[in-house]
Amino acid sequence: AMIRMEAWEKMGGIPEIVSEDMAFSLTIRSMGYHGLFLKDIICQEACPADYRELRRRSEKWLKGMSEFIIKFFPKYLGNKNIYWFEKVDILLVSFVYIFPLPYVFLFIVCLIAFLPQHIAEITEPYYFALISDRIKAIEISVILLMILISGFFLAYQFISGHYNSKTLWKIVKYLKYQAYYSFSNFIKNTIDIVLFILFKKVDFIVTADSAILSEPKFFIFLKKRLSFILQYLRRFMLQHRL
After folding, report:
1. CA-to-CA distance for 119 and 125, rounded, in angstroms?
2. Could you list the residue ranges that cross the membrane (predicted)?
3. At what angle do helices 115-123 and 125-161 cross, to 10 degrees?
4. String of b and e for 76-107 (b: at least 16 CB within 10 Å)?
5. CA atoms of 11 and 27, how far apart (whole Å)
6. What angle do CA 25, 149, 113 make, to 5 degrees?
7. Which own/partner contact pairs does 206-213 have at CB distance under 8 Å and 24+ positions apart?
8. What tens digit of pLDDT does each residue of 29-66 get?
């Protein structure tokens, strides 16, 4: 990013927060400044060396965004220099990183509220028959609410990042990758968020610097073992014409 010296001096430097880009943009916008996106800039940022480093960077993003939402964002809610739709946009972008939480909430609600009722269906069938319609209505309402929340975030992400993709195949492909990268890691992501809420600690991790790290000895040993087993199975199948 390129910042005007006048804005930099007025700002007083970068905010001391992990999500410093979001914090700086929000603060400088509250002072009346506007940003401009340039399309002819090429980013050459180094990518994480492997999946482990990608998860470490994802952990930084999750905790950083949680820190930003809890500690930094609320004090700018009443700022008149920031339009309401800009506040909503920043909030939605932040919540994208904590996207799995609605599903955790749904799991907790089902576990605490609905599971005992279904146990009662077996142990106390007469009592359950009296309240079954009400329970089913509550279950359907909660599930529809979670689907609505999830659909809203999915639609927002798709429109903001893929507004030129109008074909059905691209939409299906997007939903497939979204489900893989967001939902498959919801347990790890939820743990990261809960740890931040409990301990209020966020580490600034530069994963690109970790590319020079050697692979752990355990994984090297594991890959050699798997390679040996696969070679043995291949020879066995060739010898017995399987």
Report:
1. 9
2. 90-116, 137-159, 179-199
3. 150
4. beeeeebeeeebeebeeebbbbbbbebbbebe
5. 8
6. 125
7. 207/48, 207/49, 207/53, 207/54, 207/56, 207/57, 207/60, 208/45, 208/46, 208/47, 208/48, 210/48, 210/49, 210/53, 210/56, 211/46, 211/48, 211/49, 211/53, 213/49
8. 888 888 777 777 776 766 766 666 777 777 777 777 87
